[in-house]
Write a structure and sequence with these properties.
The complex is a heterodimer of chains A (about 600) and B (about 400). Helices cover about 50% and strands about 20% of the residues of chain A. Chain A contains 16 helices and 18 strands. The radius of gyration of chain B is 20 Å and the shape is globular. The relative contact order of chain B is 0.16. Classes of the chains: A alpha/beta (about 600), B alpha+beta (about 400). The interface between A and B is medium-sized, with 29 and 32 residues.
Chain lengths: ~600, ~400
């Protein structure tokens, strides 16, 4: 072999060696890629294992706050994020409120959500929602958190309403060390969010049940106290009146008894309302109404009280484009009236009270309205702000003495608004006073409200008529008899339904012009007695006016009475004017 | 007599992580006596926060720490960003001492090493072992070792390693008694006369191909391999573009330096390995020890069987040195590449389980154990204190 050939061979060997070296390093690279792929599989298994571990941890705690803390920690730990947090979503105020954080010590308590962000992300549309990510981050609230990359998923409550957002992320400084591979973690992140969401919802339901039980006990204790207070006044005044010979003094006592009785009645009505709500018996009655008219009427109805304190009470609904709406106008009025009455009550002389109604959104034939009642009054203490909507809660014990009220109005208002699908909030205004506001969707309609019912004439003169008063309680019969006697009605009495039926059958045709029938009585109740009277076959059996006189004023009780053949009802306790008016109205309709 | 207690956890909240560690390490409550706490932590925790959390619970404690790619404890391996491990050493203050230096780099490694050694010597004149922690980027480890050996003598057992990030080669942190930074070195001298120490390191890589020859170097900086900018040549040999990052090269780019024959036998490998954790835009690479022109380094290939067999041989050797005694504490420094970057979970858990099985006590209990996945390791080889890379290094402390 010549030298040149040897050189050639050496060159060739070097080339082969070089080739081999390259192949070896390429094999190393390939093996490393394989290991990386294995590592990804390991990581995915690890993530799901950790999701399970975190769910088990969350199951073991006994309050929602801890579940949130575990969730925020999980967002960091399971998905190897630099930081994580869970935020409460206030869809009405477009705000996020921090519930818990992991490695995000400087996170602000609240973050503003850009308008329409939720709509754009479609996060709130259950069950279409999925975990999402931004890389790089563009949403202002994630930027405010200092995130360069973010992954987030929604939580829903049991009614499928968006409640919170869980977010994990990596900062600009951290992105050199943290891998952000959203597509690798998206599915496990969503599974994690769903698991923790379910635990939160279960726990919230348990918490609610526990709190409800506690609230019930507190409610009963408060109710007992609230009833005893006016009762004490009534009994005390009666005793004083008995011992007095001074007519003027007795009149004063009677006035006090009247005030306490009315307070007691108001309290019982509120308790009934609340009971109805809690039993789910309160239903919305949809009707077409003109919001402008309703609000004007409300303002008019309380204007005299405001004027008495020289208060400036105004309503502003100028941002509304449509006034013709469909919804429960009566219950809406009840809430607004309660808020306005409170505002007038707690605002000193010369103060200002405003009712503002704004349209925040309009879509698919619906309008999203914000109602706000604000005042320049005494405001609410920090402590009371947290319990303002709980039954029997008032600013302090002196409030009810000074301003009156049962402490149930706001609780009822909150329930009504929630029944309408909204939420009510309260806060102090920085410049003084308080603002209550709530948001509700109403259907828009082209139709106009039906004509307002013409004022009914007073009805027939009752003089000379004959009534049968049926009640097993002597005092109830006595009161009715006394009221009727004053307007010239002759009364006969029966103590149960059976006796009433017997008297009706024994009487001449048309002897009784009307019958006032209690509902709950021994031997035969009012419903059975009414059915029996209507079924006697006498010529006057279907004509005689029968009015229920009852403390049972739930919707189904009234319906039952009407379907048994009664003409109307009078709610106990009876008030003279209401009582006579109801009788006149029924007689007038029957004739 | 010194006592050792360890714990490792994976908890996101730093304060809670430390509280949990202390609960595990000290079921009866944090120590009231003098104590030094060594914290190894993944980057998800801020070391200064961890140190502050310890101080809150045990105010008299001296806190030292370093960042790592992962941690190892009695509980096993943890390589998430939230993993943290702790070793607490308690006992009479005359049986342990700590020292630290700031602003240590490759170019002043010897001078700073001497300062560190003198500080340590002032506390404990004749320690049984020294735990040394240096930065993992821009450091000449052999010079730091030289300074310590000159101060304490060749017989001293130096163990420990260098801090790291999660293999990005961008940053690494150290904590020394409230000082927190990227170029701090600290050391703990263990002066308990009843303690005996054994250290050993092992890897499982084989060199291949033609060597890269250093043609231009200054100190620990290699300017050129084979007449070309060092980084470009190195990357090219790995079939990677010159724009690759250290994070890309570390798993596949272990460089092998030839060992003298006698050391090769003990080491079970003719080569000791080196890692590159930094390079400059001009292609200068930061070697972890001094490099001179003419030095030859080889690319290497990972050999899983060799890794296992050498690990077993290393453990058998350690056990033989302890002659039937069981360790009272184990310190482990592992190359970060030997964590999740080289082994999947099953393999890695198998290696750690193997270590535990050799070093557990008669009841199967694992001794207090602190480990980390860092950039480099210190352990003896051929009776001398040596800097290693890509190795698993163990220090077992035992008593007669």
């Amino acid at each position: 072999m010549s030298l040149a050939e040897k050189d050639l061979e050496i060159l060739e060997l070097k080339r082969v060696l070089d080739e081999l070296r390259k192949k070896t390093s390429q094999a190393e690279l390939t093996e490393q890629r394989l290991r990386n792929a294995h590592s990804k599989v390991d990581a995915q298994i690890e993530r799901f294992t950790r999701v399970h571990e975190y769910a088990m941890r969350a199951f073991a705690v006994d309050n929602v706050a801890e579940v949130y803390a575990i969730t925020a920690e999980g967002a960091v730990d399971i998905f190897q994020m630099e930081m994580g947090a869970i935020f409460l979503v206030n869809v009405f105020d477009n705000q996020l409120k921090l519930l818990s954080q992991g490695n995000m010590d400087d996170a602000p308590e609240t973050l503003a959500l850009p308008p329409d962000w939720l709509k754009e992300k479609e996060l709130w549309k259950f069950p279409r929602s999925q975990a999402s990510f931004e890389s790089p981050v563009v949403s202002p609230m994630w930027l405010e958190l200092g995130l360069a990359h973010a992954i987030f998923a929604p939580f829903f409550d049991n009614e499928k309403r968006l409640t919170s957002l869980i977010v994990g992320g990596i900062s600009q400084e951290g992105e050199s060390f943290y891998d952000f591979n959203p597509r690798e973690i998206l599915s496990s992140f969503m599974v994690f969010a769903q698991q923790m969401n379910a635990i939160v919802n279960n726990m919230a339901a348990l918490d609610r049940a526990r709190l409800n039980a506690e609230a019930k006990n507190r409610f009963l204790a408060n109710l007992s106290h609230e009833i005893r207070t006016p009762m004490n006044a009534i009994i005390g005044m009666v005793q004083l009146a008995r011992r007095s010979d001074d007519l003027e003094e007795i009149n004063g006592f009677v006035n006090q008894i009247d005030l306490s009785s009315n307070h007691l009645l108001g309290l019982l009505n509120d308790v009934l309302d609340l009971t109805k709500i809690e039993e789910g018996k309160l239903e919305l009655v949809e009707e077409i109404f003109n919001i402008k008219d309703i609000m004007d009427n409300l303002i008019n109805s309380v204007q005299s009280n405001a004027k008495a304190k020289n208060q400036d009470l105004k309503v502003d609904y100028h941002s509304l484009k449509n006034f013709s709406l469909q919804g429960d106008a009566l219950k809406l009025s009840q809430v607004i009236l309660n808020l306005l009455s409170n505002a007038i009550k707690f605002t000193p002389k010369d103060g200002q009270i405003r009712l503002n109604i704004d349209e925040l959104n309009q879509e698919s034939g619906r309008t999203f309205l914000k109602f706000e009642v604000s005042d320049t009054g005494i405001g609410l203490s920090e402590d009371f702000l947290t319990r303002a909507f709980k039954p029997f809660e008032q600013g302090d014990s002196g409030i009810s003495r000074k301003y009156g009220g049962t402490g149930l109005g706001l609780a009822i208002s909150q329930h009504i608004i929630e029944l309408m699908g909204g939420r009510i909030h309260v806060e102090n205004r920085p410049e003084g006073g308080a603002r209550f506001y709530f948001y509700v969707w109403f259907n828009l309609t082209e139709d106009r409200p039906g004509p307002v019912e013409e004022a009914q004439p007073e009805g027939p003169d009752l003089t000379g008529l004959t009534a049968l008063i049926v009640d097993d309680v002597d005092i109830n019969r006595a009161i009715a008899v006394a009221f009727l006697k004053k307007v010239g009605v002759k009364s006969e009495q029966a103590t149960d339904g059976r006796e009433a039926l017997d008297k009706f059958l024994a009487a001449d045709l048309g002897h009784y012009d009307f019958i006032l029938m209690d509902m709950q009585m021994p031997i035969m109740d009012g419903i059975s007695a009414t059915r029996a009277i209507r079924a006697t076959g006498r010529a006057d059996a279907t004509k005689v006016v029968i009015l229920a006189m009852t403390a049972n004023v739930f919707k189904e009780d009234v319906q039952e009475a009407m379907s048994a053949g009664m003409n109307g009802y009078i709610a106990k306790p009876i008030k003279n004017e209401v009582f006579l008016s109801a009788i006149r109205k029924s007689l007038s309709q029957a004739s | 007599m010194l006592k050792f207690s360890s714990a490792s956890v994976r908890i996101v909240n730093s304060e809670r992580a430390m509280a949990e560690c202390l609960d595990i390490a000290f079921p009866d409550g944090p120590p009231k006596e003098a104590a030094v706490f060594i914290i190894n932590s993944a980057l998800g925790h801020k070391l200064d926060k961890l140190g502050a959390a310890i101080k809150k619970l045990s105010p008299q404690a001296v806190t030292l720490g370093c960042s790592a790619s992962g941690v190892i404890g009695r509980e096993g391996v943890g390589e998430s960003m939230s993993d943290v491990a702790l070793m607490a050493i308690t006992g009479p203050p005359n049986e342990w001492g700590v020292a630290g230096v700031q602003d240590i780099y490759g170019h002043n490694a010897y001078e700073k090493g001497l300062e560190l050694a003198k500080g340590l010597k002032a506390k404990i004149a004749s320690p049984r072992a020294i735990y040394l922690l240096c930065p993992g980027i821009d450091i000449a480890n052999d010079l730091v070792l030289k300074a310590l050996i000159e101060t304490f003598g060749e017989d001293i057992n130096i163990f420990g390693g260098t801090s790291s990030d999660n293999m990005r080669g961008l940053i690494n942190y150290q904590l020394y008694e409230g000082q927190f930074g990227e170029h701090i070195a600290w050391a703990v001298a263990l002066g308990d006369p009843t303690l005996k120490a054994v250290t050993r390191a092992t890897h499982g890589f084989t060199a291949y191909g033609q060597p890269l020859t250093v043609t231009k170097a200054e100190g620990h900086l290699i300017r050129e391999f084979d007449g070309r900018p060092a980084w470009a040549e190195y990357a090219s040999r790995l079939s990677l573009p010159a724009t690759s990052l250290c994070g890309d090269t570390i798993p596949v780019g272990a460089l092998a330096e030839k060992l003298p024959d006698d050391l090769a036998v003990e080491y079970g490998n003719p080569h000791i390995l080196r890692v590159i954790t930094k390079y400059d835009p001009d292609g200068t690479v930061y070697y972890p020890v001094l490099a001179k022109a003419g030095l030859e380094v080889w690319l290497t290939s990972r050999d899983e069987e060799l890794i296992f067999s050498e690990q077993r041989r290393s453990l058998e050797w350690i056990c033989a040195q302890m002659n039937g005694r069981k360790p009272v504490a184990v310190f482990q420094t592992d190359c970060l590449a030997r964590g999740r970057f080289l082994f999947n979970k099953v393999v890695k858990d198998e290696i750690i389980a193997m270590m535990h099985s050799y070093l557990n006590d008669e009841n199967g209990q694992t001794p207090p154990w602190l480990g980390m996945y860092g950039f480099g390791e210190y352990a003896k080889l051929g009776g001398r204190n040596v800097y290693h890379n890509y190795s698993t290094a163990l220090l077992t402390l035992y008593r007669d």
